[in-house]
Structures are given as C-alpha cells and as structure tokens.
Amino acid sequence: MKKLAIAALVTAATALPALAQHMKLEDQVKYRRAAYDLLGLNFGSLSAMAQDKKPFDKEEAQSNADFAAMLATVPRHFFGEGTDKNTKAKPEIWTHRADFDAKMDKMVGEAQKLPAAVRSGDMAAFRKQVADVGHACKSCHDDFRAK
Ligand code: ASC
C-alpha cells in the first residue's frame, strides 16, 4: 500500500514542470507550500530521530525518507516569476536563478540519499545524512528566504 502510494506520487511528480507553467501564480505558491509542509513533517521526524528526541523506528524512518526524497523534487517547479508576492521568497531567486537552482539541486541530491541511509541500518551514516540535508535546506533559506 505504502509502495503503491509512493509510486503514484512519483508518477505524478514527473508531470510537474508542464503543469506548473499553466498554473496561476497563487496556485504555484500553494503547491510549493504544501510540498514544503509535508517535506518539513517528514524531515522533522527524521531529524528528531537522528537527535534522539524521539525513538528510532525503522519503518517510520523509511516512510519519512521515501516521502522526503520525492517531495524534495517538487518545490523548484513552483517558483515562477512573480510568485514572491506576499511570501518569504526573496526577489534574489529570480535575479540569481542559477545560484538558487544549484542550491535546490544540492538539497534534492542530499534528500535522495536519505532512503539508503535509513536502510543501511548504520546510525552514524543516518545521522550524517540528516545533517547534510539540514545544511542544504539552511543554505538556501539563508540566501533566498526572508526571515
Ligand atoms: C527542518 C525544517 C527546515 C530545515 C531547516 C534546516 O526540519 O523544517 O526548514 O529542517 O531548519 O536547517
């Protein structure tokens, strides 16, 4: 069931770039916020486990990691020109788009290493990967997200 749900999400995600081009600006904002919210919930759970703020549960961690890896790919498609209005997105996203894209690439790449890190059963590797994702999130927020 879980695998099926993830497969459906992954299939849906492959059609995102074309979809986003036809969306109203405010709908793009809704879409990326929904993805970031769900990413934050899944990554927050992994982060809590990595810091022993909640017990490590392998099944939950695998689900969190699989969802985080997929959700991480979503927001970049929903930063069309003009979608900074009434948001924390800084205008620098569009004046420094290559830098923004590079930071997105880094975050997506690190998030996509989470499932293997969880499945390895190596807690040190898991903690390191969670930290690497957290740094990648923060690096983009520092430059491109208003406080
Ligand atoms: C989270 C979350 C973020 C990142 C960031 C990492 O759990 O919601 O935005 O980690 O705080 O520095």
Task: Give helix and strand order, one letter per element, not per position.
Answer: HHHHHHHH
Strand content: under 5%
For this structure, what is the CATH homologous superfamily? Cytochrome c/b562
CATH 2nd-level architecture: Up-down Bundle
Structural class: mainly alpha
- Share of helical residues: over 70%
Largest sheet: none
Distance between the termini: 39 Å
What is the CATH topology classification name? Four Helix Bundle (Hemerythrin (Met), subunit A)
Averaged pLDDT, please? 93
Tally of domains: 1
Bound molecules: ascorbic acid
Summarize this structure as a short list of keywords or feature phrases:
mainly alpha; 8 helices; 147 residues; binds ascorbic acid
Map the helices and strands:
Blueprint: H1 2-14, H2 16-21, H3 25-50, H4 58-71, H5 92-95, H6 97-111, H7 114-120, H8 123-144
Helix pairs in contact: 1-4, 3-4, 3-8, 4-7, 6-8, 7-8
Bound molecules: ascorbic acid.
